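hey m, so remember when u said the tokens were messed up on ur end? i reran from scratch. heres the input so u can diff it against urs
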Amino acid sequence: MKKLALLLAALFCISGLGTTANAVSISIGIGDQPYYVRGPGYWDGGVYYVWIPGHWCGWRRHHHIWCHGHYAVR
């Protein structure tokens, strides 16, 4: 009788451990994604603008400076 009660208690504890797992999702984005809304180039008033992607553009206080992408006149 004691063995049966001990076995049932062990099964009860083990079954409780299996249901407590939760899924974790991790998403990592690397780089400067183009967030242009008009595409890589467009005309506006006779002037053509092109997208210049982000890049490392210099140093400040011993750290790299990231320049975000932007539109420029071609």
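this time it looks ok to me. The helical segments are 2-18. if urs says something different then somethings off w ur setup not the seq
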